[in-house]
Amino acid sequence: QVQVIQYGGGSVQSGGSLRLSCAASRFVRCAWSWYRQAPGKEREFVARIEIDRETSYASSVKGRFTIDPENAETTTFLQMDGLEPEDTAAYYCKRCDGAGYWGQGTQVTVRS
Questions:
Q1: What is the pLDDT of residue 97?
Q2: In whole angstroms, what is the distance from residue 98 CA to residue 112 CA?
Q3: Model confidence band, residue 111 (pLDDT cutoffs 50, 70, 90)
Q4: How does residue 69 score in pLDDT terms, banded at 50, 70 and 90?
Q5: Hey, CA dihedral for 37, 56, 14, 5, is it positive or negative?
Q6: Residues 2 and 100 sit within 8 Å (Cβ to Cβ)
Q7: Predicted pLDDT of residue 4
Q8: CA dist., res. 107 & res. 112, Å (int)
Q9: What three-state secondary structure class fits 86?
Q10: Dist CA 106 CA 84 (whole Å)
Q11: In degrees to the nearest 10, what's the CA dihedral of 57, 63, 64, 67?
């Protein structure tokens, strides 16, 4: 079993930055992904880094968010710049696909 703990989040003014981090309890060779869920909405994909370090982003965050490019063995981060009120959501990291290993979620609130 792999446990994933998330850090970071909080409240920031529009245009500001935040960094979210995740740490896994042990190494598993698979992708890291980030998702978010706003109140009343479905959970949506935000960013991903593959085993070969190829990255992908949702169009809504591309150019503003950066996933840790190293695909480190047990940690990752999501750097969020140019935050907008529409980015307000609970953010989740996930290690591996399928059921995977989810972080507990952290709240990001962007004030206009």
A1: 93
A2: 36
A3: very high
A4: confident
A5: positive
A6: no
A7: 96
A8: 16
A9: helix
A10: 17
A11: 50
pLDDT the model gives residue 72: 76
> Looking at this protein, which amino acid is placed at residue 39?
P
Residue 1 pLDDT level (bands cut at 50, 70, 90): confident
Q: Is the pLDDT of residue 102 over 90?
A: yes
Distance (Å) of CA 22 to CA 9, 83, 89: 11, 20, 17
**Rounded-to-integer distance, Cα 88 and Cα 73, Å:** 29
Phi, psi of 47 (to 5 degrees): -160, 160
pLDDT score, position 70: 80
Which amino acid, residue 91?
Y
What DSSP line would sit under 18-79, residue for residue? EEEEEEESS---S-EEEEEE-TTS--EEEEEE-TT--EEE-TTTTTTEEE-TT--SSEEEEE
